[in-house]
Design brief:
By secondary structure, the protein is of the alpha/beta class. Helices cover about 40% and strands about 20% of the residues. Helix 3 packs across helix 12 and helix 6 crosses helix 11. The longest helix is centred in the C-terminal third of the chain and has 35 residues. This is C4-dicarboxylate ABC transporter.
Amino acid sequence: MQKYIHMLVTAVAAGTALLGGTALAQSGKTITLRVADSFPTGHFIPGTATLPWMEEVTKKTNGQVKFEYFPAQQLGKAPDLLNLTQTGVADIGYVGMSYVSDKMPLSSVAQLPGSFTTACEGTKAYWKIAHGETMTKQEFSANKVRPLFAIVLEPYQFYTTSKQVRTVDDVKGLKLRSTGGAMDIFARKIGAIPVRMAAPEARESLSRGTLDGLIFPNESVMSYDLQSFTKFGTKGGNFGSFVASYVVSDAVWNKLPKDVQKIMKDAGEAATMNICKVIDANIGHMQAKLAEAGVKYHTLTAAERKPFDDISAEVANEWADGLDKRGKPGSQVLKEFRAALAEVRR
């Protein structure tokens, strides 16, 4: 394991009782919680949401709640963080929903291509259904966790190593990094070869030439230092998205005082609403930085987008039907998500 970079957001108070490696206590006593994610130092999600959320909770509890933060996969790989949270290795963990699609498949509804045009549309709609009866029962309670805050990224674009994408024909045969689930369906339907992997693994694959490109969010290209490998990018595409959620285990949550629970929920709501605004406001700036780094962009015309949009509509129905056949309420969740999007847009 890489050298332990232990970022202690606030000092751990002496005298706290340990339970499963985590300091939990009665109301009025110090509560120290472990937070784990896979993001590298400097990534925009921890900087814009995770760290401010922790700081806000510590502030609002007058220092009662403190955090130990383990970034960059220090406690485990991205796909393992849900399990590590469930088993108490971490108290709060980042869950990339595509990485756990076997356990939480319904959240991929917010990753379907062509669904929304901004991060805030996707985030607000997902956050609404995440607290609805269907998702609460099927996704979170079933896994003995609950969401604290979540981010749905802006519509993904193509970033490729040696070929500019303008049409569906341009992606045929390309090996493209995918998050799995609905993105795999989309990639296959446009003739690409989806290669499922967590974002931290993409740089090595690009450097070895085992990937021809990515279906990826703009800001993460630079956060993961991929701009030297991706020579071409698209603008105006709508090729899926990604749900990043931070969850707390039920076992930990049920031991927290009610006032602390409320502070965490309120801070999580604020973090969720804030980060999507930051993402949307920063798209143009990030694309300009990537262009300065050598990425050549093509803005897709309406005529060029239409074949992709038509395929995206097929993907949504196929995704829902596939889950229905597995006994999961895919069609119901798709209906709920579309209704939530319509409400957000009003």
